[in-house]
Amino acid sequence: MFLKAVKQSKVLQLDSNMKHLIVVNLLTFLALQWLSKTQATHFRHAIITWAPANSYSNTLILRFRMAFRRSFSSSYNCDQSIINSGALRGSGGSWIARYRCSSGYCSSGTIANTGFQCTDFSVDEDWTMGENNFTYTFSSVSKEWIVSYQGCCWISSLVKYPDGNWLVSTTVNLTRRADTGRINSSPVSKSPAIIRFEEGCPQSFRIPVEDPDDDVVKCRWAIYSESSRQTDSFPHGVIDERACLLQYNGRNRTAGTYAVALTLEDFPEGTTDFSSVTRFSAVGLQFLVIITTRSGSCNDVPLFTKSTPSDGECTEVQIGSAYRAVIEVKLQDLSRHVTEIVTSSPVGMQLTPLRQDALLGIFYRNITWYPSQYQVGQQLFCFKAKDSEGSESEWRCITILVGLRSCGYNFTDRQGNLTSPNYPFSYPNNLNCLWTITATPGDYIYLYFTYFYVQGYYYYWWYGRYGNYGYNSYCSYDYVEVFDLNYPSSFIKVRGCGYQSPWCVKSKSQVMHIRFVTNSIYSFTGFTANYTVYRTPPVGDNCLSLNPYASSSTILHATPSVSASASPPFPSGSCGYNFTDRQGNLTSPNYPFSYPNNLNCLWTITATPGDYIYLYFTYFYVQGYYNYYYYYGQYGRYGYNSYCPYDYVEMFDLNYPSSFVKVRGCGYQSSWCVKSKSHVMHIRFVTNSIYSYRGFTANYTVYRTPPVGDNCLSLNPYASSSTIFSATPSVYASASPPSLSGLALGLINKNVM
């Protein structure tokens, strides 16, 4: 009886242990499932847009912006220091291209990765947002392509269709437009990652959308094949397609989180019946809507002060200068406080932490931004404020025009550079730009065009009075004119259009005017130029002369005509050349697009003994590592190998390769120059097998008498000192290029072995 009781007791104990084990295993399984779900639910927002890189190929620049859960993993973490460093965020996904074929869409494979530079983050809402871009040349196998990125998962707390896959896509059409003669540019937008509405308060959110071609833009619900979302994912919202207005109906018992997937489409200007017109493109836009339980009046929302930039404001900032502003917020309900001022910023923008001025009752963040060369053009910056009850201000967006001194500026420095707007991409239509260079009486101005391609009809340069268009059939569409003295009453001395090899113009007075006019039809790559002011004119140049007293209409120079629709030859584009002319130019292969990997290029400039060579870099951006140094040192001696070990440009003189490395450069640098102290200069360009950037463009001039007052680095073949003569702030290799370049210049003892 006792043994039976013991056996029964053991059986009961075993059953109890088994049940406990089963419960533990079940809880562990559920915990792992929950952890898996929460770790996978990190997608918040995305959009991808595109524009043609030029007017003559199928090369597009694709720009994307995405937001993910900040705490998802270390690769998605972001703070101001990471923004400043420019370090890439993301998990290594891929953009996939598919083209239209007989069976629907056929896959072409991976065209880029999805890593992005962080621009904004929210600690309170737990997201990281950033952007990046890539250039891709599409095959001519099809005119229609879809570029997409998909993965898992949306946030698990969605009211409808939680944990679903995301899919962000854009439809590309490579057909040339009849009105502009080039490939379309898609609509662009900069929405927040999260939009908040208050339950019971009818509200609306205007989708910030612009179109580079001034097309009509329509915003609609995305279908499942475009977004992996059902069209009823946000059942309490209505979209005004023409106004791009998302309206919340304000019903009660609607609190929760919803995924919104929209498609932005552009149509010809004047379109009213969208069903009868074929769209130019389609762009996917996705974000979250959170409806919060209302506390207080529907009107108790944060308000911006007058010191804050106005919605729709347009301002300008030049390369090398800072955009500065302040976002100030006041609250109507003083029992609340501002928890965040949320932004959607361009790369590299710096914002101070949220601060409070208790005396004035305002909350604010200061903004500082030095745009980089590659950000020339229109940049959107948007922001909003959120208070402790979850109420939000309006979403304000401003446009910052970067580098648009390229459509007019008054230069007074002794050296400078100018480009057509949007260079090295197609310039806008309907321009009338004017640059003026003013020097001291007795000085002379030399203007060097290193690349030149604008629309033209035959391509002539001529003298003639301003307003007298006896040669109006030549260069009557888009053109550049160069004057001197008192514009516009002075004579037109030079007018140019079409594709021209590098050329230059010299003044015979202390003033030069450059005017750039474009029409409303075609546009091309444009031009880049630099100027130098001399007290004593260089000897032996081959420049066109501006004589302020000339009155003849003699044709000075005529270059071979090419069809306006023809593809221009790549400027230089070679990987090495032996120059013997007194002027010339060189670029990294494939410039202005990304250079190839695994290069080892060598250019040599040889002049007459007694001559001096000046090499001017007008644009320079190659892969770098840590600080970007230029230095003297023996060739093959890499005491500074941690600086510029990947892609770099080296300058030598005399007998390469036995001569000394005098200058090495990498990273992003603003315009700079190098001068020889002998009649030979070697330029070597080396790249590795990983990343590539836009590269460089440069021009050189040979002088018998060196110009006075230049600010160029000197190549002294006999130097032996190790003195560092200049150093500027360093940047990281992964960072976006700073607006004020990091040049560190040094000398290393030539006897170091």
Task: Describe this structure as you would to a colleague.
It comes from Acropora cervicornis (Staghorn coral). Residues 407-534, 575-703 form the CUB domain. By secondary structure, the chain is mainly beta. It is built from three helices and 54 strands.
Supply the number of helical segments.
3
Helix percent band: under 10%
**Low-pLDDT runs:** 1-14, 21-40, 458-473, 550-573, 626-642, 719-753
Distance between the termini: 97 Å
Radius of gyration: 30 Å
Biggest beta sheet summary: 13 strands, mixed
- State mean pLDDT (0 to 100 scale): 78
Structural class: mainly beta
Strand content: 35-45%
Molecular shape: globular
Quantity of strands, as a count: 54
Please describe the structure with a list of short key phrases separated by commas or semicolons.
single chain; 753 residues; mainly beta; 13-stranded mixed sheet; 3 helices; 54 strands; 7% helix; 42% strand; globular; disordered N terminus
